[in-house]
């Protein structure tokens, strides 16, 4: 789960990482007001969760309050790489003599956290790694031993920072590590981390949280203002509702086939097989391995809430997941919400005989073979 | 013998009295798995399906000397329970929970490395050696005994493939579920190393998916050191990029971790590539595996 830049910066600031002066606003008038408070040139930044905002026109400069209002009104309400801009961050424009990088994330191959430092900031770190590997330093962290401040100093020295900024850099690294641990982040990065005069300032901040740890991050979750439901549109509303209903994965595509699966691997296989048979998936719900009858009902509700759904294909192959429960969920949904849209069910695995028997009562024949079920669903979707 | 477990292997179940733990333990016992003890803090002294329940892993180890464990403990406590088992000297822990925080997972895996223990998962269906033992949640009717070792990131995809193989009379030696990622204790390459040594395994089916680089790492090992035939299937060929496809590790990010890259790496390493489970029996026959019926 990614935080907006302004949310990440607030957390940076609370943890002692310097950020530019400024604040976020939702209207051109407020933007002009912030610019007049700052009393110098500003940067207006679209708050959207996509990379490469600058090149897409989401980051612009302004000399005075009037111009700031004008620029903000052009960005607000517009789209940046497919995302609607509802908030802009207005900040003082700072002149950087040099741009650095500092970040903490997981090294999935080494199975441990890693701190990454670079003397080349302001660009994607992956690009630096590819084009200038000599300008990147990495130190992996033993999770049982943890972090120690010398690691920040070591990194500063490895990327050849001068004495006047190397201690500040080490402090930023320590603060980033603290944020990474404290908030169960997957990624936290200051990029660019600019040298402005003789001090370091994080001009951009990225914080991505590990959703699997959200149970112990309630305070942070409450603090992060989510966009109110009444301001969501189309697909966003449907995805929000799917999440509220406990569906872990809800994805929309362009076709007319609704797909429900109870496993990630078999779900992806189903999508591949549909595409191979020249069918087109329109909405996909994956329920996870431990599925309840209620979740099955909700998944049907979610795929049928999309207008273009013409057929629903339910592919169930249970281990942890019990087919009798799934059959009860399907029966319960269809009894309460009769539909003319055909529901093709494939069922196999734990308690499958009982599941089939339950479905027969509402005259659904559950396929045993996945290919037959896919062929039938694709045929009906034409 | 099969890899990792056989019919004699002494099994501990952590979280044995919970809803899922109790149901799955019953299925494991019915299958013939040698479940010798269970742990649920606060319920020590009870007996469940003939299995004594202890408050702690140390207590269970003292009385019944289990060698391996399967944990049904929920995600927020799962890594702690696995570390308890590793600390008590168990050599293999299967972590079924889906939502284990990454910061807990890296700690658990670090301890496993130091103690030279194996962790399977998190978010795994576990493992099954058909006809011998099951340390997992697989619907065992779909599996059958035979010469094919199977490795899968997805539990459900291993069920699907085993079911197809069974219809063609091809059974499995051991089926290893690695888990949903993006952090795995036991990796694809670890599994291949065991199958390389296993006399009961004559070929391997590798079931991968988009995201990460585990299949690419496995391809390197296959090209250099693995001497048995490999049939590989990578799912997620048509998944939209940038989306987590149900597993935390199944995501194409910045053009990386695509099915196409993985398929190319495996093909270059000499693996036979299937586009769907039903193509696998023929490819196995081509690789010299005989079907039983």
The overall pLDDT average of chain B reads: 96
Over the alpha carbons, how many angstroms does the gyration radius of chain A reach?
Answer: 25 Å
CATH H-level superfamily title of the largest domain in chain B: Succinyl-CoA synthetase domains
Query: Quick one: how many beta strands of chain A?
Result: 17
At the first level of CATH, what is the class of the largest domain in chain A? Alpha Beta
pLDDT averaged over residues of chain A:
94
Q: In percent terms, what proportion of residues of chain A is strand?
A: 15-25%
- Per CATH, the architecture of the largest domain in chain B is 3-Layer(aba) Sandwich
List low-confidence stretches of chain B: none
Structural class of chain A: alpha+beta
Compressed to H and E, one letter per element, the order of chain A equals HEHEEHEEEEEHEHHEEEHHEEHEHEHEHH
Strand pairing plus helix content of chain B: what structural class? alpha/beta
Describe this structure in words.
The complex is a heterodimer of chains A (382) and B (293). Chain A is of the alpha+beta class. Chain A folds into three domains: 21-92, Dna Ligase, domain 1, CATH 3.30.1490; 98-223, D-amino Acid Aminotransferase, Chain A, domain 1, CATH 3.30.470.20; 232-381, Succinyl-CoA synthetase domains (Rossmann fold, 3-Layer(aba) Sandwich), CATH 3.40.50.261. Helix content of chain A is 38%, strand content 25%. Chain A has 13 helices and 17 strands. The mean pLDDT of chain A is 94. Chain B is α/β, with parallel strands linked by helices. Chain B has two domains: 11-120, 3-Layer(aba) Sandwich (Rossmann fold), CATH 3.40.50.720; 138-286, Succinyl-CoA synthetase domains (Rossmann fold). Chain B is 34% helix and 22% strand. Chain B is globular, with a radius of gyration of 18 Å. The two termini of chain B are 23 Å apart. The mean pLDDT of chain B is 96. The interface between A and B is large, with 52 and 67 residues.
